[in-house]
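Appendix B. Extra example for self-study. Work through it before the problem class; the solution is given directly after the inputs so you can check yourself.
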Amino acid sequence: MNEGMLAACRHEEAFYRGTMERQPQISLTVNGQLYQLPAVPGETLADLLRKRLRLTGTKIGCNEAECGACTVVVDGEPVLSCTYPAQRADGKTVLTIEGLAERGDEGVKLHPLQEAFVEHGAVQCGFCIPGQIMTSHALLQRNPEPSSDEIRRALKDTLCRCAGYPSIESAIQAAAHTLRTGEPLPPPDVKESGDGHRVIGHSHIRPDAIQKVTGEAIFTDDLVFEGMLHARVKRAGVPHAILRKLDVEQARALPGVVAVLTAEDLPGVHNHGLIVPDWPIMVGVGERVRYVGDALAIVAAESEAAAAAALDLMTAEFEELPVVSNPVQARRPDAPVLHESGNLLKHIKVRKGDLEAGFAAADVILEHTFHTPTTDHAFLEPECSVAVPTEDGRMEVYVGSQIPYSDRQQVADALGWPHERVHIVGQLMGGGFGGKEDIAGQIHAALLANATGRPVKLLFDRHESLIVHPKRHATRIRVKLGATKDGRLTAVETELYGDSGAYASLGEKVMGRATTHSVGPYEIPDARSDCYAMYTNNPPAGAFRGFGVTQSAFAVESMMDMLAETLDMDPVALRRKNALRIGSTTSTGQELRESVGLLECIDKVEAEVRRLIKQDEASHRPQGGPDSVQSIFAPRPVPGAPHKRRAWGFSAAFKNTGLGGGADDKAGAEVHLFPDGKLEVRTSSAELGQGLVTVLQMIVAEELGAPLSQVNVLVMDTDLTPDGGPTTASRQTYVTGNAARLAAQSLRQAIASTLAEKYDQPPEQIIFADGTVRVGGRSLPLAEVYAAMHSEGRQSYAVYEYRAPATKPLGQGGDMHFAFAFAAQAAEVEVNTLTGEVRVLRIVAANDVGQAVNPLGLKGQIEGGVMMGLGNALTEQFIVEDGYVVTDRLARYRIPSIVQTPEIIPIVVEHPTSEGPYGAKGIGEIVSIPTTPAITNAIYNAVGVRVDSLPVDQEKILQAIKA
Amino acid sequence: MNLWKQYLCPKNVSDALHALTSAPPPVSIIAGGTDLMLDLQQGHRAPVHTLVDVTDVSEMKALEIRGDELYVGAAVPINRVVASPLVQEHAQALVEAGSLIGGPQVRNVATLGGNVAHALPAADGMIALVALDARAVVANPDGERRVPLLDLFLGPGKSALQPDELLVGFCLPLRAPHQASAFERIMRTQGVALPILNLALWLARDDDRIADVRIAVGPFGPTPRRALAAEDVLRGQPLTGAVLAQALDALLGEARFRTSAYRATADYRRHLAGVLLQDVLQTAWQRAE
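Solution. Structure tokens for the complete assembly:
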């Protein structure tokens, strides 16, 4: 101990002798129970609750006081526990989500707020829900009858990325009503699908909803294993360089550090990647760093603090190289070359007809270039993996992943093991939206667990999550349209540049979808599209809800409005005239033979907007009297605010369901009948909040005549569930839904034939209903059915591997996709002409979903999709400057809050697709795609400013208004 | 490394001052902690040995009329400031500014003291206090002094408060008849949660003339200042379009608006200054009727 430290210690001693604090203790009441705990230096209330009391219902979404997920109620007031020093809670009373329900002898009785969140479908991924409920609870305590405005003010900073904000609001209103009056909970306002199924088409709550409102739901970071170590990753921190030297010896020597690994220590393959293995697991000395998030070394330590301290002790030396910061620059001949194959990841081409002839036939030709920024999924649960070595020499990886079998393969390859030696144990996912398809910490956690022989948790903080994982592609899209005077499209040419960042990820596929959808949902005789998906030194870009079509729809739908204005034509009429319909051929040469509900979507949205405008006129009595001959897109003044203008804008979209392009699109599912009569459906397909588990539960209940409560769903486990393929491309309701349906049907047949034989009845007279099987006057509960199967030596489960209809690769014509979803949306905006500020007031969203399977879940998907589209238009911009991430905290990357939520009017259109389960097709992405152009078209209609670069910039709007 | 080792919760000013001077250094005051905790957690500030939590210091929690002044303790959470009938009566600009600080959960712990002590050039609460002519009450081992608020700022993020000093509270003049205040701000939907521009204004009205006025704009320059030239133009004048235009000219003449990347250009700020001045002046004028 040196002189200085000695002096400091003496000082400290003297201080303790002289003043108020001795052995510091915290005494606090949590959920009615008094705790006396020793104070821990540097501890936050969130850490105390989560780590010491194991009350893991309180979630950490950002750890920077932005997202509200960690909200708990202290002495009656909601506070953010992530930035609340634990010692401040001394003497205080804390209520967490775990303390809300009443736990009596006859089980758990949910608080009305919890019940309302469940019943109103406000729960999706569930990660934000404890924060939502605690914030709402504090609100209702002081204001038992809050207005919509008061709810929005109270929940302003309690973010939900599934963004079922309207459902959250209606749940709070419903709970408030029940708490005030003691009356039963008012039901949600959801239209059921009238199609004659017993279960399908009717609203059902999620099987995991109750756990998600009580705080019992376990996400990966809530797991703790005996002897578990904490991992961290040393990131390059430079965008483009050769790693010249890496010194980790000091870090290795730090007390508490158990292992430090670098590229030299890799036992298996050196790269990972979903399609192209071009992403180094760790960059070795002499190798190339391609973005700031590249891993150089990984550490496992006894504590999070030791792991973090170890990172600071590692030193790296780089030979820094010029940075490729955008895809246009990347394609220039003099650009630095980032990969051996060059900077071009893929040149994607679409060719239809004779483009020159098409433009020659046009009376009007328009051309314009659009820009869209990189955006981040900002799922509220940051990435977390826990790798656990097992006694029999295998590796378990606990993780919320969108593609468990791909994780298994990539982790095993990195370990140099056969794939079967790795077991991915899927966990609840706090949102994914495409951002949890690429492997994140799984490999690093497994390498460290393998090296140490101990469980290892690798949790990203928000900062790391923002920097590391693949984003939505930034694009530059040029569109050239040719049309006749009467509005018939004759030719469309598009050219796209996509910023795929440092590694391939799903860039080729994403930009492929952007390209094949870049001419919009229209029939065009002559079309040509070229796309250049380029490597740059930016964070990689990959899958993100909409899969490229979000970007190209913004471009082409803006163009359609520009064309309508040039032709002096109604924008809806222009779209209707060219809309894809049965018999149309897409730009890739696919003839549409069924399930094209686009025209109905367009008609219904237009009719609804008309109805709303009429309603407004009736209630407002505008100056000058009724003026219904005006276009629905005419700008309208705002009474009492002459500087504000309102208008509606329109857009349409389509999006493929399933992988398409010749991929073997298959999914496996099993349906089991157990001795106690319970059913279980199993598949590795992922539940990320979107509601697949409800859909699968409903399908099995439908097919086997069982109540939903009798059907369990097991997903995302590579030992226990068959491969459902990636949860991407809006494919799971269709593909895994079909697998579950067919597996259930096959189990049903097995049961019917067994019972038919046993009771000597014709199989077709055996009825499955009410959780029983009726055969020859008997009504057998499923437990007895199991016994009958067992005694006959019959298998009590069925497996089905479903293969979707074959598709053709791009360039070969024919069916590139087996189904498309269609949509139209209208947005009403209000623009402040003094400041340029834009507010979205209402969105009408019609989606052709084939068949609504669960209308309650569908409503949540529509609300969330619209809000994600709104964020894409107005709030979100992931900024990278010369390879360095500027928006590296949630405080700098804004996702929409409840305050920005417009009234969302969902319309469900059902044009069934013959192969889809009950006619259903994918809905996860289509709901989000038309929102951005509907908003920007509305801005144009309001103030005459064309937004061709996202996000909408209020300063630019103002400049343009003034110009 | 722990972000702090020792956490002290003094109950009165003298204990708090004692802690500041005698606890093992480095020592930092923590009030709401909504900024400080982030600075520590994100490494913008080195870990400290001692945090002195002042939220339980009785003098700093008080909010009351003292003689002819409104006293607001520096550690009163913003939500209580905003909900206080006294503040609503005497300091409307502070209510309007306070209800825009952070989000609801943040306001339940954040304090005006923190808002001022961080010395940022556009902190909403601070801007309102400047227009309301607040004095800061600062305690140190030698006693207590009252400081005009603007004297607390040395530069962006640099406060004049000394390490052994405690910002205890704020004294605001009571509102007399025909006096009023107002506050507004304009944000950007993307990026950092800092205002593009805010403006607080207090005025005394003498029938159809502005008898007296104070204007604070954030960010006006590297440190908060009042728009004195604009105030001079307005003082003694009726509220007409011409006077307003002249006042705006004066304000733009003395403001040092700058361009902040990804937030706003100086030009946009100049434009918004006009929008805000007109709006806020109009509101205060009507309130002072």
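Self-check: The radius of gyration of chain A is 29 Å. If your reasoning did not lead you there, revisit section 3.
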